[in-house]
Amino acid sequence: MRSARVTGCTEETKKGWGPLGAILLLDIIAVSSVLLNLLLSNLHHWFKPDEALIIGAIKQSDSFLEFHRSLQWNLFDNLLYYSLFRYLGLDIAGWKWIATGLTVANLGMFFWLHRKYSFLDGRSLVCTLLLIGVTFPFFRYGAWAVFIYAALMLFSTCLIGLVLTLNRDPSISWWKTLGISMGLTLYIAFDMRPLPAIGAVLVFHFFRSIGSKGFSPKNVVSTVGRDLLLGAPPLIVSLLLLHFSANPEFANPRRDLWPLYFSRSGFDQDLLGGIGFLFARSWSLLQSFFSTQVDPIEGIYALPGWATPILSIACCLGLIRSIFLRGSDRRAVAAYTLLGLGLFFILSLLGKYPFGNVRYALALYTPILLFAAWGLMDLLSGSRFLLARFSNRKRDGVAFGLTISIAVILILAQIRVAMTFHSKARDFNQGLDEVFEALDQVEFDGMLYDPNTQTVIRYRVPEFFEAPNYRLPREFSSRGQVERFPLGAWRQLLSRYNRLLVFTDLPIDEHFGEHFRVAKELYRIEPLASAEHWNLALWTRYESLKPNEVNWCLHPNDFQRWVKVGDVQVDPGPALNSIEKDSGDRIELGPGANLYTFISTPSPPGIPIKGSVRLWSDTPVKVGLSLERHGDSPPEGSGVKWTTLSAEPVILEVSRVFTHEHERLRLRLWAPPKDSATFYASDATIQVEKPEGGSELSQSIQ
């Protein structure tokens, strides 16, 4: 029998367990309720935008390299998703089952660790399993088709097992060290997010080894050599991925992420600012981890809102008490967790890693979960002091009764949320089927859709992208942001089509009042289908457009679709609630690099054409703009107009009266021949300066 000093389980603690049969029954009910949630989540085809985004990008790509360039995720993640779809036929439903399998394996790892190391007593194990199924990470990532997150949670539990192994026996053999190192390297190649957690394992092993052997030059050299073998391969692979193929959020994060995860905004770059950042982001990390709002879009809660701060406080108490349990596994897990949080924090201060949301800290999923369970059990044990007037048996019975009550509440919460998810998913699928059935029965010459419905269209009916279409500006995907889209530009957009199909996730008449009024002036609006989240309507113009009219040409703010020449990187993702000047794409151009887009509308000679784009930059940078013919017609175009950008947005314009007729025109953004340029851009247009007869017709850039 292992000693209490090693396991942290004393005889006094065991008295509060209650009958072994009841604990075993609770274990079975706990795991069954978790599995019920997982299985019900896979009985439908309800998907999130990111899930459909991957499938849509694969369908639209002719090769893996094209898919990888379009998605800009981790190289090996992209390779895995691409291979599973192209060669095994697994799509969203199949990926959900992979995620479910990983989460079930995670539950198995908890039982295995409990049997091998006894670091969880019976009540703590029950509480841990139940907390898995009522907190945000489980519902968001446990059965999500983007299964790298479920894999991260399983990997987090495996790292705890590694920490316990190193804590029990720091002097592992060289062959075991090599095997562990290869396993870490293989995983980090697919996902580099657990890099700080792996670094924490290495630091923990170093100090644990020194503490067990004694401080001497020989021991230090031996430990450093073993840690180099253990950590050098995964760290080298991580650095290579960070440099060549990592998500740009790590190496060069978007500005809208700074206030959320990085120290660059809202905190001073000094000691006090760093401390303030640490406390604020640590608390936001716990709040996101223990959020009982398991689906923010639907507003579904597993537990009342007050449970989030209680679980967060219990986690902090469990961590603090674990630090003082000398010789226990809890103390080892606490040391590893504090090291991991410290590395996350240091990297975030350098602006190289996010810190402040569970999505980026899932490598610490298991230890944070354990401390919450330990903290709750510590609070229950502490309640005995309030019951001192009762006998020992009475006190133990009350503590066990409280444990049973908590378990029952959490189990009922899991089952309720599982059934609610299943019901909403069924309604979602039925409504979406009605929408796409209506799509097959209508004729149209143009289509409007917002960024949220784009992923649905790409997944279900990718052929729609072969027809004239226009993605609504990002302002339309967030309530209250549409006012930033000028009514003049809205009129230009609407004036292109005779029969316009409008597919949005929000009822456009309810949320875009003034813009909808303008639409009703030009179109007769006929609702076709309406389901929860999805709204489909046909807009038919009162007065049909005259053929061969010269149209204005308006382009959506999507520079990723532009043709890239040279060293060009485009980061398209702004924050939904960002300020106006932030609602653009971040563009990086190497020396002499450029990117351009073109329209396919014939351009008669002698008509003044103007190209414009809205630009700004964090630091002064020189950028050029030109307007040219595109295609086989005689070469003709404007010279490059250069300007130096600052933090204040400016509209850069260039004009040209073409002397030849051109089938296509293109607008091009330039970097200086010998200098790179990093800036932000939005609202790129090609338009007739003075349309004949005051027409405000528009043409989408393809």
How would you describe the overall organization of this protein?
The structure is a single chain. The chain is an alpha+beta fold and 702 residues long. The protein contains 24 helices and 19 strands. Strands 8, 10, 11, 13, 16, 18 and 19 form a 7-stranded mixed beta sheet that branches. A 5-stranded mixed beta sheet has the order 4-3-5-7-6. A 5-stranded antiparallel beta sheet has the order 9-12-17-14-15, with no helix packed on it. Helix 4 (49-59) crosses helix 21 (451-460), helix 5 (64-71) packs across helix 6 (75-88) and helix 16 crosses helix 17. The termini are far apart. Mean pLDDT is 76; it is low at 1-18, 386-391, 550-556, 574-582 and 691-702.
Q: From the helix content, strand content and strand pairing, which structural class follows?
A: alpha+beta
Individual helix count: 24
Number-wise, the strands total 19
Query: What percent of residues adopt helix (DSSP H or I)?
Result: 40-55%
- Euclidean distance between termini CA atoms: 72 Å
Average per-residue pLDDT, rounded, comes to 76
Radius of gyration: 29 Å
Largest sheet: 7 strands, mixed
Principal-axes shape call: globular
- Percent strand: 15-25%
Low-confidence stretches: 1-18, 386-391, 550-556, 574-582, 691-702
What keyword list fits this structure?
702 residues; alpha+beta; 7-stranded mixed β-sheet; 5-stranded mixed β-sheet; 24 helices; 51% helix; disordered N terminus; disordered C terminus
Lay out the secondary structure.
Layout: H1 4-7, H2 11-15, H3 20-41, H4 49-59, H5 64-71, H6 75-88, H7 92-117, H8 122-132, H9 136-141, H10 148-168, H11 174-190, H12 195-213, H13 217-244, H14 248-251, H15 258-261, H16 271-289, E1 293-295, E2 300-301, H17 307-323, H18 329-349, H19 365-382, H20 392-439, E3 446-449, H21 451-460, E4 470-471, H22 487-494, E5 499-504, H23 508-511, H24 513-522, E6 523-531, E7 534-541, E8 552-554, E9 563-565, E10 568-571, E11 585-589, E12 594-599, E13 608-616, E14 621-629, E15 641-645, E16 650-657, E17 665-670, E18 677-688, E19 698-700
Parallel strand pairs: 3-4, 3-5, 8-19
Antiparallel strand pairs: 1-2, 5-7, 6-7, 8-18, 9-12, 10-11, 11-18, 12-17, 13-16, 13-18, 14-15, 14-17
